[in-house]
Amino acid sequence: MMSAPENLTSHGLGLGGRILKMLGLNCRNMRWSITAEPFSSEILAQLRVTSCFHFFPSAFKGLVRMEDFTGMLTPSESHSSFPFYPVTPPLSSVPSETDLTLKVSTDVTRDDIPVVAVVGVGYVGKHLVSSFSSKYQVIGFDVSERRIQDLRHEFKGNENVTFSRNQNNLIAATHFLISVPTLLRPNKSIDSSYLCDALEMVGRVARRGSAVVIESSVAVGMTRELVGPIATKLGLFAGMSPEVCDIFTDQYLLMILTLTNAQLQRVDPGRTEPPIKSIPKIISGLDDILPGSLDAINRIYSTIFDNVVTVSKPEVAEMMKLYENCQRMVCIAYANEMADACIAHGIDPYEVCSAASTKPFGYMPYAPGVGVGGHCIPVNPHYLLSNSSFPLLDACSQAMSNRPAKLAQRLIKSLPITERRSRVLVVGLGFKAGQSQLDNSPGVALVRELAISGAQIDLTWADALVKQEAVPQVPRLGECEWNKSFLETFDVIVVAMKQHKMDFSLLAKLEGVRVESWCK
């Protein structure tokens, strides 16, 4: 059993420096730049991270020093009433946990029975645990105690699954699947800190001959830049396989499934069809760094997924995932522009979408909305833009980011000028139907823009799955108040997303209330 790793916060070097020091590599020959001072508590509190690699802008212009963008928040982001919601705590803040009893050999060989470590068991990681545990022992690792407890309860009875927050329990693993969040900072630069933390940990516990696969979405070239040095030094097979989570919100899925009966090509959060094992799985390997990487990854993935598609190198897999999601960003932005034009002409944009969808070929339906949420479609354009020029994508991303503010201003201008304050209700704050998470939620963005607008309105929000403490700055409509009598006390009701467990048929029965529905 290897000794417990040293405290991650005990060095003055940033994470990049620590991992290079651990691997015995010369920092002068690398493209990292290393901060010599720890970040201020103010920055840490604002960004909810403790460490990251600091790239020179020439490599990935989206990856910059954290200190350089202090105070560069947009008016909405800097408003004190709407703090950023943390995701999971940093790895260095995780307390120790009792080690499991594991017997391991020095190196991993082809004859070893696979033990799969899933690092990061959020939505994508949980599905990886479920899939790989059908045939192998799986260790799910996460830094969130609450998530670990929830998953232990959810997977109770599955003898192939163990969950832990102690990285020493991963030394029995032969395969490491990394599915941690890859996020954006407030100024839209790439926050790779979770991925870098995960790679540092893997570098501490992985044995020679293990396989490391990046499942998280990353910028083109990041797998090679981040994993390559570790694979070279430690003799690890390495590659990239984009996660199979879909970025559609339910309104877009409803359009596709209802109007075209199209089968989805990626899994959508909250959906069970098609089964994840039946979705084509793209894999790649860093064979030019460690020959046999693709074969090592293919051997285990082909036992889990019905259709494994190999590509020549990780850069192809990285670009494929970003191209796929960013194509949707462009199409949805176009649908929003179409909707705005329809409104100006007195046309129902959803009727236009429905009519266009009757064409059986050459058209993919996209419905307009308040925006898009989650960790894929709002984020992925910035990963492409970090080291490539995409003027059209850049414009679409900006339009999508500005859309909640645009709709808020349109609503405010439409309100009658009266002595009393107008009552406005925004419905649907989860980033998609069936979800309580607020990650890049369009509904939250709309509420935020209305709240800070200075308009004379009384603002309320409603969502059956989101609790008041998630957005404490604006009052939440209670479940008992979701009735015709109380809803008619509002002047305007904006439906950003149709949340589950809410009777939306009531809205059609309201009298004297303007209802704007941005979903079908």
UniProtKB/TrEMBL annotation:
One GO BP annotation is: polysaccharide biosynthetic process
Looking up Gene3D superfamilies in the UniProt record yields: NAD(P)-binding Rossmann-like Domain
**Name the record gives this protein:** Vi polysaccharide biosynthesis vipA tviB
- What is any Pfam family matched here? UDPG_MGDP_dh
Q: Which GO terms describe its molecular function?
A: NAD binding; oxidoreductase activity, acting on the CH-CH group of donors, NAD or NADP as acceptor; oxidoreductase activity, acting on the CH-OH group of donors, NAD or NADP as acceptor
Superkingdom of source: Eukaryota
What family does the Swiss-Prot or TrEMBL record give for this protein? Answer: Belongs to the UDP-glucose/GDP-mannose dehydrogenase family.
Q: Which residues form the UDP-glucose/GDP-mannose dehydrogenase dimerisation domain?
A: 316-388
Q: Where is the UDP-glucose/GDP-mannose dehydrogenase N-terminal domain?
A: 116-235
